[in-house]
Amino acid sequence: MTPVSFLSKMKACVLTWGCQLNQHRSEEIEGVLERAGYEIVSRPEEADVVILNTCMVRQRAEDKVAGRLGELQHLKKSCPLVIGVGGCMSQGRKKELLRYPSVDFLFGSANASEIPELIERAMRGERPVSLPYPNRIERLPVRRRSSFQAYLTIAEGCSNSCAYCIVPFVRGPLRSRPMKEVLAELRELAELGYKEVTLLGQNVDAYGLDLHDGTNFATLLREVAKIPISRIRFTSSHPAYMTNETIAAIAEGENICEHVHLAVQSGSNRVLRAMRRGYTRERFLRIVEKLRTAIPGVNITTDIIVGFPGETDEDFQGTLSLIREAEFGTVYVAMYSPRPYTAAAELPDDVPPPEKKRRLEAVLEETRRIAQKINERKLEEVEEVLVEGFLESKGLYYGKTRDMRTVLFPGEEGMVGKLVWVKFERATPGALYGEAVKETVA
Ligand code: SF4
User: Fold this and answer.
1) pLDDT score for 39
2) Which residue among 22, 41, 87, 252 is buried most deeply as judged by most CB within 10 Å?
């Protein structure tokens, strides 16, 4: 590969859609580009190269990428621009993406290291496409976007086959990183003074099962708890894989935060079977009970899909009653969107869009009611908040408690990145408002 010296003025902009794994992948893409001599800029208008790191978990995510490609086509008319598309959509929509004249090259969801070379080939007039089957983990330089919060991928891909999910097709099978490597990266982050690290995987509870050396998520959490970082988070958890060992490890780990994102998707056993989720509503509620017993005050959040093929109103009532029974802190709800190659794509998408919308709004309303109730219970309490930023529109600082609640409060310059204790005075479904009472000297 030609050294980039003659390209050193080149500016690159990375646009990202999708989950935290993809957000972190973009930090790695920026790391690869920076190492190759590119200057990272935040707006396509300033860039010579634009990289789109895409998502196709739902149709809406794809539509957003299509819209952006249209805009970039215009920009390209007024200035020379190299455009590369990667991530899940390039793995799943190669033909469709190559129909966009603005696209100069494609890369996959597991070969970001190739980007500098693909840019060079595109600049030489080629239209390279490199979409190897995603069955490896690259060790990539990371250009982290925060100096106090970090993502750390512990496993890539997923070997499950949930009927609605495109992930196994576009991100490949489960690949766990060796525990030694994960712990080494975590120690580096501790030395750099990071306050919070989020361990990432499509299904963190399956961590290590592909290593066949006795490693599993519980053993990892126990080792992670020994590393001096104030807050350890992890996402996403899977009810079919969460073990009593893991629950015990979360409870024992002082720096492991009291928040578990446990995706349930539906409250109907009939729909859970059709989704091939591998657990029942009853098993899910038993896990919730075990978590609440082992970790008092734990905040459990979840994902729900409404309008899965064949979902009746009775099934949906099952979902609403489960939300009430489990008392989730937050529910991320989405309308079912058929994905190519998935088993569910063979089923008739028979829940009419207005009915999907009605069910989505019913879930949001129920969740808001419960979140308000839960947040009101916290009034007058004092909790530690990691300050993430300043909200101009409200003139308040914001951050998260250990159990992942959003807190807003008046503060002062220099508080971002600090751990501050806040007394809660007002509750809304989405946030707690309060006053800072003291700072954690960390
Ligand atoms: S566990 Fe299921 S929903 Fe989650 S990434 Fe794997 S296949 Fe998709």
Assistant:
1) 97
2) 87
- Centroid of ligand 1 to alpha carbon of 355 (angstroms): 25
The Cα-based distances of 224 to 129, 179, 201, 303, 311 in angstroms read 39, 10, 15, 26, 41
Query: Is the pLDDT reported for residue 3 higher than 50?
Result: no
Across 238-242, average pLDDT: 98
Assign domain 382-439 to a CATH class: mainly beta
- Atom nearest to 238 CA in ligand 1: 1
Strand order in the sheet with 259-261: 259-261, 299-306, 331-335
* Whole-number pLDDT of residue 1: 43
Q: What is the pLDDT of residue 214?
A: 94
Q: Which residues line ligand 1 (CB under 6 A)?
A: 158, 160, 162, 165, 167-168, 202-203, 238
CATH topology for 149-372 is: pyruvate-formate lyase- activating enzyme (3.80.30)
Pick the CATH number of 4-130 from 3.50.50.60, 3.40.50.12160, 1.10.3720.10, 3.30.70.100: 3.40.50.12160
Find how far residue 319's CA is from the centre of its chain.
Answer: 23
Instruction: Tell me the CA–centroid distance for residue 334 and ligand 1, in Å.
Output: 15
The domains of the chain are located at 4-130, 149-372, 382-439
Q: Report pLDDT digits (tens) over 221-239.
A: 999 999 999 999 999 999 9
Cα–Cα distance for residue pair 90/108, rounded to 1 Å? 6
- Its pTM stands at 0.95
| Topology alike, domains 149-372 and 382-439 | no
Residue nearest to atom 2 of ligand 1 (CA): 162
